[in-house]
Amino acid sequence: MAGPETPQFTPRCPRCGSDAAYRYGRTRQGRQRFWCLICKRQFTDCKPKPEIAERPACKICGRKMHVYGRDLEAVRFRCSGYPQCRNYLKIIKEHK
User: What is the mean pLDDT for each group of 10 consecutive residues in the chain (96 residues)?
Assistant: First the structure.
């Protein structure tokens, strides 16, 4: 005889707020990864990283740049036209 089933915890998507998500494996650190069925975003159940409201424009081709790296000291952007345009930008964070 099986015991009582425990309900599965599914967090809300940080982008669209939907609770329709599949469990989608684990990260290298062992955190549960989820995949939103509505907006197709992958996310974990931990605190989400702050979204960057204003993305810089590429100085070479004029397209918007995407975040491709974050660490404690800087945020790195790469041109959305990559690999045709290989421009990048590193913005140093201000410490408070």
Answer: 54 87 86 91 76 85 90 88 92 75
List, in sequence order, the alpha helices (H) in the chain: none
Question: Any idea which residue has 């159940």 for tokens?
Answer: 45
CA separation for the pair 70, 33 (Å, rounded): 19
**Beta strand ranges found along the chain (DSSP E):** 21-26, 32-36, 42-44, 65-70, 74-79, 88-92
Long-range contacts formed by 54-58: CB under 8 A, 24+ apart: 56/89, 56/91, 58/85, 58/87
Domain ranges across the chain: 9-48, 50-96
**Which residue, 52, 60, 54, 53, is CA-closest to 88?**
60
**What is the pTM (predicted TM-score) of this model?**
0.49
Polymer length of the chain: 96
Omega cis (within 30) before 7: no
